[in-house]
Write a structure and sequence with these properties.
Layout: H1 19-28, E1 37-42, E2 47-56, E3 59-66, E4 75-82, E5 87-93, E6 99-106, E7 112-118, E8 127-133, E9 139-145, E10 151-158, E11 164-170, E12 179-185, E13 191-195, E14 203-210, E15 216-222, E16 230-236, E17 242-248, E18 254-261, E19 267-273, E20 281-287, E21 293-299, E22 305-312, E23 318-324, E24 333-339, E25 345-351, E26 357-365, E27 368-375, E28 384-391, E29 402-405, E30 416-417, E31 428-430, E32 438-444, E33 449-455, E34 461-463, E35 469-477, E36 482-489
Parallel strand pairs: 1-29, 30-36
Antiparallel strand pairs: 1-28, 2-3, 3-4, 4-5, 6-7, 7-8, 8-9, 10-11, 11-12, 12-13, 14-15, 15-16, 16-17, 18-19, 19-20, 20-21, 22-23, 23-24, 24-25, 26-27, 27-28, 31-34, 32-33, 32-35, 35-36
Length: 492
């Protein structure tokens, strides 16, 4: 991947003839990174992020989908970035059909467990999909779940006993019309238990959380008779027997997207509602351990707004991520909301430009928050992955969004040899004149892109400002031409 306007800082030292040692030293002592930032990642088609997770103190894993590259019409797209937002690696996962990732866990060995949907394998139509990777994103195994009709998985959580809870919706099993669906699998993806909640209504499951008593609670939607959808919460005991199923909401459509068990033993649910306004509003519902309603809040009032994921802070306050049309740069904007212990408004932050941005994923960091979603305003084309790292007050130091172009979309075999001179170079690289405009990247031996910039037709000279080292120079023309070569940079 590459990053527009980002270059390595020059190093003032004698010419270092030991190039690899010089490069390693430079990377180890690079410039201090910004603690907050806004970044867009992708290529020429559509990319989006649905989830972000912390791998360690300085690396974050992001997953979603891509239409720019991969084996089929849509593939799972996984990125690893460092604490400054610089790309570490990217991978695609999938077959000739459609694959998307909806949620993800980071395992003890730093491998990933991704859940979503596939049409490339399984029993037919769409099937639930679970993929296990190693720490470098390589697939170790994959499983599908479902029947002959359509089946989807939206959420994965550890069950606290070495296995995992998968939540979604099935059209293959149970009554007609679609059903909330919960599965328990072991660490190899083998199904141990599954259930369709006894709701006696068409339903969908969007998330489930293990509970302190050894059971679990599922949230989603259900529609009884001719009534609109309501939020449904289903509680199971430690023996996986259903204890209760309760509906919440008003006189119109209400959807529960996310659930967490709260510090007081109750449950916090986030989603959307149409019951209290002409607009779609964010819906925050708090219930006690027995399912009794403590309070609810609806946010929006003057335009559309939704909440898609949330966390409870150690203080008992809440952070949620979603989108709003009530404020911001235009269209939908990614929206980070902090709520009080009673659901009251503390602050809201918008991130976006003139087009649409939506936030789907959120994690809490020691010094702030990391938000993941999709942008139509920024990036390389179509929609792009949109990641925002904020401070503890939910703001970023700068509003500038840096674009990172992912060259996965151009196969290595498609690159012709690029003649350049001089090589080694002190930073000025002469190339044959280009017949069309395009992009050029300069990546080091570890795959980190130091320069990702544009070139104009007729360009014959590229200027670099990077440390001494061995680099891969790539040129990708808008006319479909591509060329690459190795170049040695020796800084005076």
């Amino acid at each position: 991947m590459g990053t527009t306007t980002r270059t390595g800082a020059p190093r003032n030292s004698m010419i270092d003839r030991c190039l690899l040692a010089s490069l390693v030293a430079t990377l180890a002592t690079g410039s201090v990174a910004q603690t907050t930032w806004r970044r867009a990642y992708g290529a020429l088609d559509n990319e989006e992020a649905r989830v972000v997770r912390v791998v360690d103190g300085d690396r974050f894993a992001i997953a979603g989908s891509t239409g720019s590259f991969g084996a089929g019409a849509s593939d799972i797209y996984v990125l690893m970035v460092d604490g400054a937002g610089d790309p570490v690696w990217s991978r695609t996962i999938g077959g000739p059909g459609v694959e998307v990732a909806s949620d993800m866990l980071v395992l003890a060995d730093e491998g990933l467990l991704l859940v979503g949907t596939t049409t490339s394998m399984g029993a037919g139509g769409y099937d639930g999909y679970l993929v296990r990777t190693d720490a470098d994103g390589a697939v170790l195994w994959q499983r599908s779940y479902g029947g002959a009709d359509w089946d989807f998985l939206h959420d994965i959580r550890s069950d606290g006993a070495g296995g995992f809870l998968l939540t979604g919706q099935t059209f293959s099993f149970g009554p007609n019309g679609g059903n909330a669906w919960i599965l328990r699998v072991n660490d190899q993806g083998d199904e141990l238990w599954s259930d369709i909640p006894q709701i006696l209504a068409p339903s969908a499951g969007y998330a489930a959380t293990p509970t302190a008593d050894g059971g679990l609670a599922l949230v989603g939607t259900a529609s009884v008779g001719e009534a609109p959808e309501d939020v449904v919460v289903v509680k199971y005991d430690p023996d996986d027997e259903q204890e209760w199923a309760l509906l919440f909401g008003g006189d119109s459509t209400d959807v529960g997207r996310d659930i967490v068990q709260t510090i007081d033993g109750g449950f916090s649910i986030m989603g959307s509602t149409r019951s209290y306004s002409q607009w779609v509003e964010a819906y925050h519902l708090k219930i006690n351990a027995s399912g009794g309603e403590d309070w609810y809040r609806n946010w929006g009032q003057i335009n559309d707004q939704e909440a898609l994921e949330h966390v409870e802070l150690p203080t008992g306050e809440f952070m949620s991520i979603g989108y709003t049309r009530t404020s911001g740069g235009g269209g939908k904007d990614m929206f980070l909301l902090k709520s009080a212990t009673d659901g009251g408004f503390v602050y809201g932050r918008t991130f976006g430009g003139s087009e649409d941005e939506t936030g789907y994923g959120l994690v809490v960091l020691p010094d702030g928050f990391l938000c993941a979603g999709v942008t139509s305003t920024y990036g390389s084309g179509g929609t792009d992955v949109f990641i925002v790292r904020t401070g503890i007050d939910g703001t970023t130091e700068f509003e500038t969004v840096e674009d990172a172009f992912d060259p996965l979309s151009v196969a290595e075999a498609a690159y012709a040899t690029l003649p350049i001179h001089p090589n080694p170079s002190s930073g000025i690289i002469n190339i044959p004149p280009r017949s069309s405009a395009g992009r050029w990247t300069l990546a080091d031996v570890r795959g980190r892109v130091w320069i990702d910039g544009a070139f104009a037709p007729g360009t014959t000279r590229l200027e670099t400002d990077v440390p001494s080292g061995i680099y891969l120079l790539r040129l990708i023309g808008n006319d479909g031409t591509a060329a690459s070569t190795r170049v040695t940079i020796l800084r005076p």
